[in-house]
Design a protein that fits this description.
Chain lengths: 382, 254
């Protein structure tokens, strides 16, 4: 796919997002029939779905998105994957271009090829995260053709789930999602309530036994949504957080948490929205060519802010940790009117030093609130 | 050789082994698919595993192994005097390596265990930077050939040449591995310098830190992690001392 195609694709994408405003098609499908549908889909395509990869020492299953070739391999009732689905769109290491050198001259080759891919079982927070990456990668001044190619060629099937005790996506208002997927499945017992959001999904599904949602199905869906909404055990108060963060720029809290931080970048690797990267050039060993690659990086890593000449703008753990929080909860909110965290708490689960957004943000708020006791409360609204 | 208008000279190298298994040097002759191109960048002046020719006009010396005998000290100093650039090649040269395990027991006991009654001169295993100035380190047990290739290309083309500064966890997470701490094991990934592609944890074997400490790694937090997970302090110490890469941190703790 070359540049001309890319421009055409951009227009396509615009049409897709415009089409998103069209009403969604709702159907129900029995779980048995749904498995048949998935089975047919994954047998003929490259597909990834949640699979148990290990059992943790506490006896809890550990899931990841892994290749699947039949419905039987998929853990439809999984909890959450340890790593997000980000790397299907932003690979951890990606070749941006290849150079070839001959007779003192050079040529550059750029490819935006992405084979079609099916992702099964993404949670609303995962899909929201991809929608945010769309903002960054497609709707900024320099859209990424690499990302666009993958995004367009990926078919996403979402599935709802009951939150884990540490999920806080409701606080971020990301526990539901209404766009960014081809098909979304809500579990209503023996059936899935399907939200069909693309003509491709609809034409695939036509081959299978679908029913119109009955009155009872609609009630079950509403019950399911209510149950999910009321099952959250972790809530974080994020209202006004950008202002809090502005005020707390020099707070000792950052160094306190920074002292714990291992600067290992695990949080950013598993995060569904962390997209920071570094670019490097790698020569072929015969020096006849080279590869320009980007490599997902993390602002927690020691040399993230190191510049030519060796100066490091953020040599301390606390400064680096702070900037990760600022990017997620302040910078992005100020620029795009949304916080870039979806509340999946993958960072918290992956962190060996027990650092998680809930504790850091609560700590920050606690410090600020403890010094506001002299401020009289506003009168109640009547 | 001319490359994009820059004159490129082959690296005149000598490769030398001290107390080691020569496994790192063997890596130089490994990875057959790129071996001819790799050797094309080198002018091998002295390297007993590849060539029987011996010349002493090398510019770059790759030194494998730790120092455990007095005659090795003299030989190492002579290499340093000749080389413009001296590279500590592999974990033994960089940190003392697995040979340092014997430093934990009395020398005569170690000799008797290996050589019986034969009298053998031996000293505590030390890293080569205790004896001579080291310009560059390529750690690993064994070294990664892919990384050696990048370093050689960097030197030949005079381009930027950096080993990763961050810990193994970055590579390990990118491989979607299950964290070994989640499986109840002590892994040195969070404190060890990356660049190995997390090869051990990818095979469900805990990192033993052969590449030494990551830059500015957080040792107190790591100790706390092992403590809070209720994992064995002995197991942690055994791993931290296995390659002797964390000696500076452990001395500091004592």
């Amino acid at each position: 796919m070359h540049l001309r195609t890319f421009i055409k694709d951009s227009a396509d994408l615009f049409r897709i997002s415009a089409a998103g405003a069209c009403p969604m098609i709702y159907k129900v499908i029995s779980k048995t029939e749904f498995r048949k549908f998935i089975d047919a889909l994954v047998k003929h395509n490259t597909a990834y779905g949640p699979r148990q990869v290990d059992t943790g020492s506490g006896g809890k299953p550990i899931y990841q998105f892994r290749p699947v070739t039949s419905a039987d391999e998929i853990d439809f009732d999984y909890t959450v994957t340890h790593s997000s689905a980000k790397h299907f769109f932003l690979p951890f290491r990606d070749e941006l271009s290849r150079f070839s050198f001959e007779d003192g001259n050079w040529e550059q080759e750029v490819r935006y090829e992405a084979p079609p891919l099916i992702l099964i079982g993404l949670r609303p927070c995962d899909i929201s995260a991809i929608n945010m990456l769309d903002e960054v990668m497609l709707h900024g001044p320099y859209p990424s053709p690499y990302y666009l190619a993958r995004r367009k060629n990926t078919f996403i099937i979402g599935m709802d789930h009951l939150p884990l005790p540490d999920c806080f996506c409701k606080s971020m208002n990301r526990h539901t999602v209404n766009h960014g997927f081809n098909l979304f499945c809500s579990d209503i017992g023996d059936k899935y309530y399907l939200s069909i959001n693309s003509s491709k999904a609809y034409s695939f599904l036509k081959e299978f036994m679908l029913e119109e949602p009955s009155y009872e199905d609609n009630c079950l869906l509403i019950e399911r949504r209510k149950m999910i909404k009321h099952s959250f055990e972790t809530n974080i108060e994020v209202t006004g957080l950008p202002v809090f963060l502005d005020i707390e720029f020099d707070s000792p809290i950052w160094q306190k948490w920074g002292d714990k931080c291992l600067s290992c970048g695990s949080c950013a690797m598993v995060c569904p929205t962390c997209y920071c990267y570094s670019v490097e050039e790698r020569f072929d060993i015969d020096l006849k060519g080279s590869s320009r690659q980007n490599h997902l990086y993390s602002c927690n890593l020691v040399d993230f802010a190191q510049v030519a000449g060796g100066h490091n703008f953020r040599p301390r753990n606390g400064d680096r940790l702070k900037y990760r929080y600022y990017h997620h909860y302040r910078g992005f909110a100020a620029n795009d009117n949304q916080q870039i965290c979806v509340g999946c708490n993958r960072c918290g689960r992956a962190c060996l030093a027990d650092i998680n957004p809930k504790d850091v943000i609560n700590d920050l708020r606690l410090e600020r609130e403890s010094c506001m006791i002299c401020v009289s409360p506003s009168p109640d609204r009547t | 050789m001319n490359h994009l208008g820059f004159k490129i000279e082959k690296m005149k190298i000598g490769s030398f082994d001290f107390t080691c298994c020569e496994g790192c040097q063997l890596q130089l002759a490994n990875k057959e698919s790129t071996l001819p191109a790799f050797l094309g960048l080198l002018d091998i002046r002295n390297f007993r595993e590849i060539s029987s020719e011996r010349h002493d006009d090398y510019d770059i010396a790759l030194v494998e192994g730790s120092i455990t005998r007095s005659d090795e000290i003299e030989r190492l100093k002579a290499i340093r005097a000749q080389a413009q650039v001296l590279v500590a090649f592999g974990t033994c040269a960089c940190f003392g390596g697995v040979n340092s395990l014997k430093n934990k027991i009395p020398a005569d006991e170690a000799v008797r265990g290996v050589y019986g009654d034969k009298a053998v001169e031996t000293m505590p295993s030390t890293k080569i930077s205790d004896i001579v100035t080291v310009d560059f380190m390529i750690p690993g047990c064994p070294v990664s050939k892919a990384e050696v290739e990048r370093v050689v290309i960097g030197i030949v083309t005079r381009s930027l040449n950096n080993l990763p500064k961050y810990p193994v966890c970055v590579d390990c997470k990118q491989k979607l591995n299950t964290c070994l701490f989640d499986l109840g094991e002590v892994c040195l990934g969070p404190v060890t310098k990356a660049g190995c592609d997390a090869v051990c944890p990818s095979g469900k074997t805990a990192c033993l830190g052969c590449r030494g400490p990551a830059d500015d790694m957080n040792f107190p937090s790591f100790l706390q992690l092992v403590r809070e997970k209720g994992l064995s302090h002995e197991e942690m110490m055994e791993k931290l001392t296995f390659y002797n890469g964390f000696a500076d941190y452990l001395d500091h703790e004592r």
